[in-house]
Amino acid sequence: MRNFITVEDAGDLNEAYEKAEYVKKHPFADQKLGKNKTMLLVFFNSSLRTRLSTQKAALNLGMNAIVLDINQNSWKLETERGVVMDGDKSEHIMEAIPVMGQYCDIIGVRSFSGLKDKKFDYAETILNQFVELSGRPVVSMEAATRHPLQSFADYITIEEYKKKIRPKVVLTWAPHPRPLPQAVSNSFVEWMKKADYDFVITHPKGYELDPRFTEGCHIEYDQKKAFEGADFIYAKNWSAFSDPNYGKVISTDKSWTVNSEKMELTDDAYFMHCLPVRRNMIVSDEVIESRNSIVIAEAGNRVVSAQTALREILMGL
Ligand code: CP
């Protein structure tokens, strides 16, 4: 594996899960792989889980880990070409990225969509510049359109908890006061499609995701109908994708909050969310604290997904 950016980089998902099981059982078995190697984790945006779990994964593999918060303790970076740099941005990303590549063996990048310019976001302009200019393997730690380390952890968690070979998994939109990227949802869709689960997406009209991700998916606008017989409920908010509302909140309808009454419609489904989660917007206290909530195990699997991906990259260096 050279980069870890989309579900395709994971290869066959059954094999990826077997590798993840191995990593989970033997977290320190491959310390020699990362000896004298350095991982640089570059954050353009905030993080709790990704920051800690990816560092932990790198350390488990014997690597050194350096974290760079671009917006807190680095020069402000210009990302557009052709700009006269007479403002507050001191360095261009075209120099900064190859320089970063000089100091590490693998680069992780978190760079959310700005939600202002769909073309810029969906071209993965910043992530692709890291791929092109760093000279190093790149791991997406959530980019503009995808969050593969999260989706791999979600997939591992579903495999661990499922009671049927082909469980019913429902991705449900839920309300949030602020505009959020579509990356977690896009990514979850591509992993669930490849896993070939009985997969249903439910959201209010106007919240359709990019059809390049949802092509062939069962979309059900009636949330209660979607929940019927489900084995896993995966809640997530996202802002509108379709023009003219790209990146906007067009509804905060609390009738979409996941609550106990709706969970009753399922087949004793597990509740999942990538976290951080807004309680009583996305999900009621009662559901997230219930015995069926597996959000902590899901977050725990972020170390496993990161370590499995990094191990594959290290084996190719
Ligand atoms: N789920 C996730 O990526 O969490 P953080 O934003 O805290 O890293």
* Fraction in beta strands: 5-15%
Summarize model confidence as the mean pLDDT: 97
The CATH topology assignment of the largest domain is: Rossmann fold
In terms of per-residue confidence, which ranges show pLDDT below 50 for 5 or more consecutive residues? none
How many distinct beta strands?
11
CATH architecture of the largest domain: 3-Layer(aba) Sandwich
CATH superfamily of the largest domain: Aspartate/ornithine carbamoyltransferase
Q: Globular, elongated, flat, extended or rod-shaped: what is the shape? A: globular
Give an overview in words.
The chain starts with 12 loop residues before the first helix and ends with a helix. With 317 residues, it is an alpha/beta fold. Helix 1 packs across helix 13. Helix content is 37%, strand content 14%. Strands 9-8-7-10-11 form a 5-stranded parallel beta sheet. A 4-stranded parallel beta sheet has the order 2-1-5-6, with helices on both faces. A two-stranded parallel ribbon has the order 3-4. It has 2 domains: 7-146 and 302-316, Aspartate/ornithine carbamoyltransferase (Rossmann fold, 3-Layer(aba) Sandwich), CATH 3.40.50; 150-298, Rossmann fold. Strand 7 (168-173), helix 8 and strand 8 form a beta-alpha-beta unit. The protein is globular, with a radius of gyration of 20 Å. The structure holds phosphoric acid mono(formamide)ester. Residues 47-50, 142, 150, 274-276 line the site of phosphoric acid mono(formamide)ester (CP).
